Amino acid sequence: MKLNKKFDLTRIIISALLTIALVFIEIFYGETKLGNTTIKLVIILPITLVLYILVSFDLYVKSAKNLAKRDFFNEITLTLVASIAALAVGEFVEGLAVTVFFQIGEKFENYAVNKSRDSIKAIIDLRPDTVTLYNNKIERIVDPFDVQINDLFIVKSGERVALDGVIIEGSSSLDTSSMTGESTPRKCQTGDEIISGVINLGSPLVIKATKEFYNSTMSQMLELVESASSNKAQTEKFITKFARIYTPIVIALAFLVATVVPLIIDYTNPAIWSRYIQAAASMLVISCPCAIVLSIPMAYFVSLGVASKNNILVKGGNYLDNFRKINTVVMDKTGTITKGNFEVSSINPTNDFTSDELLLLVKNAEYYSSHPIALAILKDRQEIDESNLKDYEEISGKGIKTLYKGKTLLVGNSKLMDDFEIAFSKVDTPFTIVYCAYDGKYAGSITIKDEIKETSLQAINNFYKNGVKSTYMLTGDNESIANVIAKEANISSYESNLLPLQKVDALKEIMKSSKNNVCYVGDGINDAACLTTANIGVSMGLAGSDLTIESSDAVIMNDDLNGINKTIKISKSNYTTVMVNLIFAISVKVIVMILNLIPTLPIDSYIMWLAIFADVGVTIICVLNSLRLMTRKY
Amino acid sequence: MRQIYKISGIDCANCANKLESMIQKVDGVSYAQIDFIAERLVIEVIDDALSKVKEICSNFEDGVSLRRIK
Question: What is the pTM of this model?
Fold first, then answer.
């Protein structure tokens, strides 16, 4: 039965206020004589009954429906039984209070659930509701689901790109922060591929869709997050089982308390019967495992949402729980610890050349080359004047010979220098060295290497603070490069010269010695097998292949190893919250049950209030505790 | 066949657990899981049993609705 919202809320607020008033009237004037009878009977009882009907009629309807379906042990029916029991033994206000607070608890639960749903949606659901189609140069606004592959669509300034595609017309800059975590805008132009989820910051772009909406990067990512909470953690599975046995046990106990206990103590004494029927009623009130059943999945839900807000997609509560146990992190080198592309790391001019002159010479020489090293050197091309260059020649395995401003320019490895009898000093380093000679004179060398990311060292240092005992680097590169990178990044051990399959074997060895709490981090190129083998597989970058995302348990979208630290912290605070809720809720309920049964305690009239606190109060506290996870910064 | 539904209108977390176990008992359902907070029902079911599942859901509580998302 769905009631008008306004009416529903008004009746509960009014009843709650009047109930509180009645409590005080009962305390101070309950036994005051009014003619032959008491205030309790003449004033309190009628008002209570009217309010009781107002507050609980919908509960009776629902309960009747449940009974018709042979569902006897739902919390509505149990609450009503408890309230009837209280009314029957003359505790009118308590009987009313049970239903009033039950309703308040329900409303609060609804509010909290909706609030957490909304805020998680706000974090993760970035999908635009509409797309502006631009086929045949006519703008038409459609549902993103209706866009076909090869359709053209326009993304104007400030709009989010809905589908993956290729830019057909226009150039602009993009805010990719929500997809990659990269905060500086990225330039894009006609012909560039574009992933969904980025925001166009500049002039309009015409884009040709290369994937349907539901297959586009952003939708895939959201699917990952949304399905994450279906992968339940052990704790969540436990509480489901717990809820299934807890309720019947408490009900059975309540039955025994209401019948057997009075029979044993003194079955001729009505006060004893009243006392224990109330105790049983209060047990029925606390027989609902709501506090646990709601607050614990909510904690996981919120934590997974918080992780995705921090650019980490964790594929389920079970995986999230594993993060706090990590004692060993194994990493791939290229693309994980390092940037994965070559960069000029040092320029060493000699013989009166300046750094700029040397770099300009090398750039001119490499201008026509498509070698990866040339591409690293030529990152910005504008300062090259092609008219200066003549007679370009690539000498295979050695380098480049060309004429620059009419004089011979040589750029290449040491063999090239030897061939042309240039007097130069050989540099001893594991990295790639490019030597340069101009007009027969040695100009210096440039070191090129795959640098470690700015964030790697700090992230790895923080691993150790977060309970990681050892770190490993597995790489296919040679020993000397591995050694340098491992030192630079403060990694405790490394293995080099590994083929992809040998990486898996190495990983298995590490897992044996680390009690299976090993996290493997890779960029997904050639290491899908490692990601699946490790206890937790984390891939870097959403740009990875679908296979990578499928074989990993979590994805760090912004390529920053600090994501591991954040996830460990989220995992730990989530676990603490879950445990606190579990222990708090169960112990309050057990304590109240025990208090119920101590005959000498003068708590008769408080029994119901205790039960109400143990049910509604505890639920509210636990839910708030879970929601608190949302406000933490990582 | 694995299907995903948005399931809305369930009153409480415990009710969701009950509905989940009711669906799990239907013949032809090999897997069913309800995520109360995300409002998702993930189900592996043969086509014949699907109408039975839908019937259980709509009879479970007033206002419970299913919408296929995948």
Answer: 0.78
